[in-house]
Amino acid sequence: MLASNPRWFTDDSGKAVVLVGSHVWQNLQDNGLIIRGAVSNPPPVFDYNGYLNTLSQHHHNFFRLWRWETTQWTDKYTGSEVKYCTPHPWVMEGGKFDLTRFDEAYFRRLRERVKAAGERGIYVSVMLFEGWEIQFSDAWAHHPFHGPMNRNGVEADADGNGFGVEFNTLQDTPMGRRVLELQEAYVRRVIETVNDLDNVLYEIANEAVIASTAWQYHMIRFVKQVEKGMAKQHPVGMTFQYRGGSNATLEESPADWISPNPGSDKERYRDDPCGDCSKKVVVNDTDHLWGHTGGDNIWVWKSFTRGLNVLFMEEMLPSPTWQDSARVAMGQVRRIGERVNLAAMKPEPGLSATRYCLAARGREYLVFQWDKGEFTLDLKDASGRFGVEWLDVNNNRVVKVGAVDGGVVRTFTTPFPGPAVLYLRKE
What we know:
Elements: E1 9-10, E2 16-17, E3 20-23, E4 30-31, H1 48-57, E5 62-65, E6 72-73, E7 83-86, E8 90-93, E9 96-102, H2 104-118, E10 123-130, H3 133-136, H4 174-194, E11 200-206, H5 213-228, E12 236-239, H6 247-251, E13 257-259, E14 281-285, H7 286-289, H8 297-304, E15 309-313, H9 324-339, E16 346-347, E17 357-360, E18 364-369, E19 374-378, E20 385-392, E21 397-405, E22 409-413, E23 420-426
Parallel strand pairs: 3-15, 5-10, 10-11, 11-12, 12-13, 13-14, 14-15
Antiparallel strand pairs: 1-2, 4-7, 6-7, 8-9, 16-17, 17-18, 18-23, 19-22, 20-21, 20-23
Helix pairs in contact: 2-4, 4-5, 8-9
């Protein structure tokens, strides 16, 4: 993260980098995890290059590279339909995994996909484990660490209830230590596969159980320990534990970045995102706020002007769709983030009547107006003359309207209807 302004990451040039992008379940493994679409085995082949094209067209620069652990499952969203997923990290022969032998094809695909994204200037969060499926589907019956699914005598379902949530916990038993040993070997192999690439972040687990806290903290430290002796060190993230997790658990973790849930009355990451509730880099991800049913351009701009990075979970439906406004807004955010001196900009909600303001006082101001056409901006401590520019958020167009003098509280009126971004820069 950027030492002088730790709400942002940096590319080591001293320049801040805002992360924005759309992520989808199928972007690493071919995966039947879709709400709409035919069921097949093997599952449909994902058009990864088309996915990168879509991200590039919208000027996105970040996504989560999804991991799915089971070979097949059903869940409440798809009824009796059986879904399938392939490939997996371990060799499978005769319907059973050998947890001591890695499938080279899986790791080749992992490296190729991260590298291809990097060639387009896109950062990738490599998801190491996935916790939702073993809580809310019948996935454990087909999980590599379920006894009948491997050749190694490994069974991570400690209480035998058929869900295997202990896989995401520390178990101080001979079997628990064996499971952890195999998990660490897998994580080490992932790190060895992508460590030399610059566009890498790690996420320990998607929506693992509340009891996973100690295990996730251990894994965060393990990733950092392994990379300490390697060419590059990458940020490690912890995302919200579902259900019933606490954002405080994320904040207290050794992670470099976090993705919270909607949070407390102060945090309100859905509708009034908090800009000073975390000392870590915050990636505000719709997956942990709504799943794949919420988020729009208003939410994107509110998040950014409170100093947050933004991720949007979607199904990659073709336009027109309600998801379009968020896709476009994330590109807008990245473009303005590349123009301004973002490293010097911090949330300053008290400067504007809109309460959504990023500022490097006396030099640059970004104000988001989402609910009215007229608002004030306090420029009393900003001497000199400032160029004025507006972004029409809904229509994705820029309007330049001259300049104003600082030194006073000024009233601004948007030159078009709808949400707007005001950009002031000292001449």
